[in-house]
Design brief:
binds nicotinamide-adenine-dinucleotide; globular; 7-stranded parallel sheet; binds uridine-5'-diphosphate; alpha/beta
Length: 413
């Protein structure tokens, strides 16, 4: 066996074959930023299972301790509350950089209006939705506020490190929106810069989880990695799209300029258990709505398309990418393409054939279609998704059912 070279992580052990041997190896020290989130926590499960030591770095902005709680007490697991916008000193072999407020809820219409300013944090929600959504909402650090909110009118939100704010339900907050977006951008740009600085200093391999949103409203279909995209640089989604594009640029600059070993994944819409229930993404919205016997909200005419990938397929792809020889970028997504109306139909078939559909105006700059070309990942990583929407959705539904209704079964379910 060749000597293990820390600078190159597992690279020196790789056979160069289609199935990286590294997938089976054990005993690495790995940081997962955003590891308490949806995708991150599933990745952590796989890494721990493989025998690695995992440090999760998360500020619980959209992640939850519950997602990784089952590893507490394991000496190979560590959880650090930290915002990647601040520098971080650690010694590890690999960095999976997932930290990012990934849901578009901050800048798209959503019944739960989560408006955030920085460094003062203000959450403004409609009274009716507060009680229902917060206990299940991703903002773990805010669950305390739920109790305070039970009066229905006021709440004190106490988020460690932030100023405590008192507000009335429905109270207007002076233009916090822009500040919230700055925060998204900051995480993508400054956060990624810090993690690259860390990777450079310790010679760790760095994997960026970028997004299919870098293709914007694509003029090429399906999207190939060589396509440069069609992104509005000043639109409401730009903080995410352009933030990730900058993160990709930084990643390549550190690779070319400082010799950092990097990997870039462009992730297409992913769903599965532990997804945030009320974060406004379409699969979680439809599933939660159908379970609660509410109409599924279809934005626009519902003919826009997306490709939905089950989370275990994504995690497999991320690990293959990290252990493989290729920088990327690689599209990681399921090429099955669905209109939102077709998705609603699958949700009806899975949960409740009587579930209704309600049309809502669509949001600004919503991409009309999206579908990955995954030829590159197939050829170079030996990867392709295995779980169809029809197979994956029920796995997510049972998790949502438990989280929404507790251990009790929904009436009539
Ligand atoms: P998520 O919101 O569940 O997880 C993101 C995690 O990052 C959360 O735990 C959050 O608390 C943490 N975080 C956010 N800002 C942070 C900061 N400044 N410092 C430390 N931690 C911070 O989202 P996810 O769906 O698991 O997404 C994970 C990654 O994959 C993101 O980078 C996202 O952009 C990317 N991605 C996801 C999808 C998808 O469909 N799920 C699609 C494309 C790209
Ligand atoms: N950084 C970090 N941890 C480290 C090394 C660097 O968080 O172990 C941060 C550092 O604070 C800086 C960023 O990463 O803001 C970029 O670091 P780099 O050394 O590339 O740039 P420089 O500090 O020279 O500007
Ligand atoms: N969408 C919808 N109803 C919802 C939420 C989203 O019809 O309740 C649509 C949205 O307009 C978009 C698609 O579903 O066309 C995917 O939205 P999502 O926010 O999940 O992901 P993204 O736009 O980032 O791909």
């Amino acid at each position: 066996k060749p000597a293990y070279d820390r600078r190159f992580g597992l690279n020196s052990w790789n056979s160069g074959g289609k199935v990286p041997l590294g997938l089976k190896r054990k005993g690495l020290r790995i940081v997962v930023t955003g590891g308490a989130g949806f995708v991150g926590s599933h990745l952590v499960d796989r890494l721990i299972e493989r025998g690695d030591s995992v440090i999760v770095v998360d500020n619980f902005f959209t992640g939850r301790k519950e997602n990784v709680m089952h590893h507490f007490g394991n000496p190979r697991f560590e959880l650090i509350r930290h915002d990647v916008v601040e520098p971080l000193l650690l010694e590890v072999d690999q960095i999976y950089h997932l930290a990012c407020p990934a849901s578009p809820v901050h800048y798209k219409f959503n019944p739960v209006k989560t408006i955030i300013s920085f460094p003062t944090t203000i959450y403004l929600l409609t009274n009716q939705l507060v009680k229902r959504s917060w206990p299940t909402c991703c903002c773990g650090q805010l669950t305390e506020a739920v109790d305070n909110w039970s009066g229905g009118q006021h709440s004190l939100i106490n988020w460690p490190g932030y100023r405590t704010v008192s507000l009335s339900v429905g109270q207007a907050v002076t233009s916090p929106r822009l500040l919230g977006l700055t925060r998204m951008h900051k995480t993508n740009v400054v956060g990624t810069l810090n993690m690259l600085g860390l990777a450079k200093r310790i010679g760790a391999r760095f994997l960026l989880t970028s997004t299919s949103e870098v293709y914007g409203d694509p003029l090429q279909h399906p999207q190939v990695e060589t396509y440069w995209g069609n992104v509005n640089p000043i639109g409401v989604r730009s903080c995410y799209d352009e933030g990730k594009r900058t993160a990709e640029t930084l990643t390549m600059d550190y690779h070319r300029g400082a010799g950092v070993e990097v990997r870039i994944a462009r992730i297409f819409n992913t769903y599965g258990p532990r997804m945030c229930i009320d974060d406004g993404r379409v699969v979680s919205n439809f599933v939660a709505q159908a379970l609660r016997k509410e109409p599924m909200t279809v934005y626009g005419d519902g003919k826009q398309t997306r490709s939905f990938q089950y989370v275990s397929d994504l995690v497999e792809g991320l690990m293959r990418l990290m252990e493989g020889e290729h920088v990327g970028p690689f599209n990681l997504g399921n090429p099955g393409e669905f209109t939102m109306l077709e998705l609603a139909k699958v949700v009806q078939e899975t949960i409740d054939p009587a579930a209704k559909i309600e049309y809502r105006p669509n949001t600004e700059d919503d991409p009309h279609k999206r579908k990955p070309d995954i030829t590159k990942a197939k050829d170079l990583l030996g990867w392709q998704p295995k779980v169809s929407l029809q197979k994956g959705l029920p796995l997510m539904v049972s998790d949502f059912r438990k989280r929404i209704f507790g251990d009790h079964k929904e009436e009539g379910a």
